[in-house]
Write a structure and sequence with these properties.
Layout lengths: L8 E2 L6 H5 L2 H10 L3 E3 L4 E4 L2 H9 L4 E2 L28 H12 L2 H25 L1 E3 H18 L9 H10 L6 H6 L3 H10 L11 H10 L5 H14 L2 H16 L1 H9 L4 H11 L5 E6 L3 E3 L2 E3 L4 E5 H4 L34 H18 E6 L4 E2 L8 E3 L1 E6 L1
Parallel strand pairs: 1-2, 3-9
Antiparallel strand pairs: 2-3, 4-6, 5-13, 6-9, 7-8, 10-13, 11-12
Helix pairs in contact: 5-6, 5-16, 6-12, 7-9, 10-11, 12-13, 12-16
C-alpha cells in the first residue's frame, strides 16, 4: 500500500524488547526522520514530534478513536473485550459519556477526597520511613493506588489483586499480539470475570464514584449497561497509569537527588514536579488513532482508514518544544506535555492522579532527606506503558 510520495520509512519496531527497555534513542531517530514516518514492519504511520502529536490528538474528526486506540482496527477484527465507551468512542457517544465522568470528577468532587488521600499517604509513608528500606513499586507505587482508588470508586477489598493484571491486559492489548500480550492474557478469564462482577450497581458501595455513575442512569443520561462499562473504564485506566507514574517519580528523585533537595526546600514545587516526571518519564508512552479521511502531514499524504501511532513520550522530549528536553528539572514549567493526552480524549482522571502524587510527595518531603538506590531497578515491559517492576530504595530520614 503506497499512499504518499517521498514518505520517510523506518524499520524501527516500537514493540520490541530492545525499544521498550530504552525508547529514547529511537524516539530521537523518529523525530528526525520527519513529521510522520511509515513503520514498515506494521504498515502504520508514526508521529513523534510534539506539534504533530498534539495536532492529531486535538483533531478527533480526522484521527478517530472509535476504531480502537491500539494497533488492532475494530472495523476489521473484533476486540478482546467490548470497546470502551469513553476511550474508544467518538462524538456523539463520547460527548454524552464524557459529560457524566467530567461531572463526577469535577474539582469540587476531587477535593472531597483530598483529606482521605492525604491521611492514607501520611500513614503509608510514615511506615516506610520507619522501615528505612523498601521496594518503591510493591510497597508504595502499587500499595497506595490499590488502596485509595478502589476505596474512592466503591470497590470491595476482596479480589483487588485482580486490578493490576487487568490493567496489564488492557494496556498490552494496544500493541501487537506479541509475548507481552500473551503473558498478560494468560489468566484473562478469571480476571475479566472478577472485573465485570465489580461493575454492577449492586456491587458498588454507596457514595463512591462508581455509584455516582449509576445515578446518571436514574437521570436518563446513561443506560444501565453503559454505566457498568464506564465503571469498567475506571478500573482499567485508573490504577496502572498512577502506579507507573508514582514509581517513575521515585526513580527520578533517587536518580537526581539534587532535584529532590530543591523540592524539599520549596514544597510549592511539588505539583509542578510531578508534571515534570510525567514529561520526562511518561508512564503512558503511546496511543493509536485511525484516519477518517485523506490528510497531508508535512507534505506527506496519509490515506483514509490508516493507523497512526502517536508517541506521546517522544513528543515530551522534542527539542522543538522543550529546552534541554533530556534533563529532569523540577523547576521546569512542564505544562503542555502529552502524557495525559489533550483535546476531547484528554485523561478524564488526571486530577485524581495529580491528587495521589501530591499527597505522596508531600508526605515524603516532610520526612525524607534523600532516596538511595539499593540495586538495579527492573523494568516492567508493556506495549503501552513505561515503568518499573522493582525499585529497591533506602531512605535517609530528615
Amino acid at each position: 500500500m503506497d499512499t504518499t510520495i517521498d514518505r520517510p520509512v523506518s524499520a524501527i519496531d516500537p514493540f520490541s524488547r530492545e525499544f521498550l527497555r530504552d525508547p529514547y534513542p529511537h524516539h530521537a531517530r523518529l523525530r528526525e526522520a520527519g513529521p510522520v514516518v511509515w513503520l514498515e514492519q506494521y504498515g502504520i504511520w508514526a508521529m513523534a514530534r510534539h506539534q504533530e502529536v498534539r495536532d492529531a490528538l486535538t483533531d478527533w474528526q480526522t484521527y478517530c478513536s472509535s476504531a480502537g486506540v491500539g494497533l488492532s482496527d475494530f472495523r476489521k477484527e473484533p476486540p478482546w473485550r467490548p470497546p470502551s465507551i469513553i476511550l474508544e468512542a467518538d462524538p456523539p457517544l463520547h460527548t454524552r459519556t464524557r459529560a457524566v465522568l467530567t461531572r463526577i470528577m469535577s474539582p469540587a468532587a476531587i477535593n472531597i477526597l483530598r483529606a482521605t488521600f492525604e491521611r492514607e499517604a501520611e500513614s503509608l509513608v510514615t511506615r516506610l520511613v520507619d522501615q528505612r528500606e523498601f521496594d518503591g513499586i510493591a510497597d508504595l507505587a502499587e500499595a497506595y493506588p490499590l488502596k485509595v482508588f478502589p476505596d474512592a470508586v466503591g470497590i470491595s477489598e476482596e479480589g483487588r489483586e485482580n486490578l493490576l493484571p487487568y490493567g496489564s491486559m488492557v494496556f498490552n492489548s494496544f500493541g501487537p499480539r506479541n509475548e507481552l500480550f500473551n503473558a498478560a492474557m494468560a489468566n484473562a478469564g478469571p480476571v475479566r470475570d472478577w472485573i465485570m462482577s465489580r461493575c454492577s450497581r449492586a456491587a458498588l458501595a454507596p457514595n463512591g464514584l462508581g455509584i455516582q455513575i449509576f445515578e446518571a442512569v436514574d437521570s436518563g443520561e446513561l443506560s444501565e449497561a453503559e454505566a457498568g462499562m464506564l465503571v469498567r473504564s475506571f478500573l482499567s485506566a485508573g490504577i496502572d497509569t498512577t502506579v507507573y507514574g508514582l514509581g517513575n517519580a521515585l526513580y527520578c528523585f533517587a536518580s537526581y537527588p539534587e532535584q529532590w533537595m530543591l523540592l524539599r526546600e520549596s514544597p510549592n514545587l511539588i505539583r509542578g514536579a510531578f508534571e515534570e516526571v510525567l514529561r520526562f518519564e511518561a508512564p503512558v508512552q503511546t496511543f493509536f488513532r485511525t484516519t477518517t479521511r485523506q490528510v497531508d502531514v508535512g507534505g506527506v499524504r496519509l490515506g483514509q482508514g490508516e493507523k497512526v501511532l502517536l508517541f506521546l513520550a517522544a513528543a515530551n522530549r522534542d527539542p522543538r518544544r522543550w529546552d534541554k528536553p533530556d534533563a529532569f528539572d523540577v523547576k521546569r514549567r512542564a505544562t503542555g506535555h502529552m502524557t495525559f493526552g489533550t483535546g476531547i480524549h484528554g485523561c478524564v482522571g488526571q486530577a485524581l492522579a495529580r491528587l495521589e502524587s501530591e499527597a505522596i510527595l508531600s508526605a515524603f518531603a516532610k520526612r525524607v532527606a534523600s532516596f538511595e538506590l539499593m540495586g538495579q531497578p527492573e523494568p516492567r515491559l508493556n506495549n503501552t506503558l513505561r515503568g518499573l517492576d522493582t525499585l529497591p530504595l533506602r531512605i535517609v530520614p530528615v
